[in-house]
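Hi C.,

You asked whether I'd gotten around to modeling the 228-residue construct. I have! Everything is below, sequence then structure, no commentary in between.
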Amino acid sequence: MKIWPIPFVLGVLAIIAGNVSFILSVNEGFVETCFPYFEGCTSISKTGRQGLSFIVFKLIILPVMTLLSIYWLLSYNLIKNSIEVHKLTLKIMITSGVIGSIFGIIYASFLGSEGNIYQLLRRFGIYFFFLGTYLSQVLEVYLLFRSKKNHNSIYLKIMKFLSYLIGLVIVFSIPIYGLIEEDDWLENVLEWNITLLIFIYFILVSLFWKEKNYLFIFKSNYLDKGNP
């Protein structure tokens, strides 16, 4: 079974969820009209808290986060079976990725709920989603580059560039927070753009997997022995 559509669908659906929710929220008057990637007039969370966007966002994001867990399991097995790598690094990659997806589910589940506890859960959810997913992406790129046969892939090179870009954005944005008093708009801009880059990464992975023609093969001991 070809598996490249899994990260492709994951990435595309996540990007659609955020942008469609924003458009619906604008049309329903819950957020102001702007270009959030540059102006930061609202956060991704705020676009999915009320009205029709609340339903659409949850209906898309919860399956996406489930697909994300499946993705890391597939990536773990592909790297484990095709590249000689340090087992501890590989285990950190899958652990971090799955934890990130679980916290993404927590974030989406409590989106729209009122109360300080729910707000805390959402905040922890989104932060650990970003942290876990980004760390796993960095480790995945590192492990894939351990194989010389992957060095010529343009998709893998772009994945590496994206991981560097996200890291640079985070590092250089930290000092700016100390210089700006009202920095909510900056936090929103970073949230929109980092989220976009993180999910574009998965689209690139799908193209890389397609290029390498990675397959998932079902095996059954019963079928191997000729039993039904």
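If it helps when you're writing up: The first helix runs from residue 5 to 27.

Thanks,
B.
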